[in-house]
Automatic annotation (TrEMBL):
This is OTOF protein. Keywords: Membrane, Repeat, Transmembrane, Transmembrane helix. It comes from Pomatostomus ruficeps (Chestnut-crowned babbler). It comes from the Eukaryota. GO terms for molecular function: AP-2 adaptor complex binding; calcium ion binding. CDD domains: C2C_Ferlin.
Amino acid sequence: NLLLPDGVPPERQWARFYVKIYRAEGLPRMNTSIMANVKKALIGDNKDLVDPYVQVAFAGQKGKTSIQKSSYEPLWNEQIIFTEMFPPLCKRIKIQIRDSDKVNDVAIGTHFIDLRKISNEG
């Protein structure tokens, strides 16, 4: 197979990759939706609520946790499972904390995990 990089065997096994999401701390107070601004103006509600969830992308696949309503220190204790060939050709995992909104979800923070830094050479 000409598409495989040097050193990757043509016969690869399927593997499961488990990403465990425990919690988040110190999320910013934010809510930029139009309804939140109307609610603030009409009833004086000044809470900038965050409804966070975590979205994980790996090797063209995406998974996400449940949404934790109105939480600045959410606790998930969930895992996302990806099934991919081993060794994977994708070398990083994208982890993004997002604020759920009815109109448009907003990214709060993004981090990439480099698999080469956490993997065994063999």
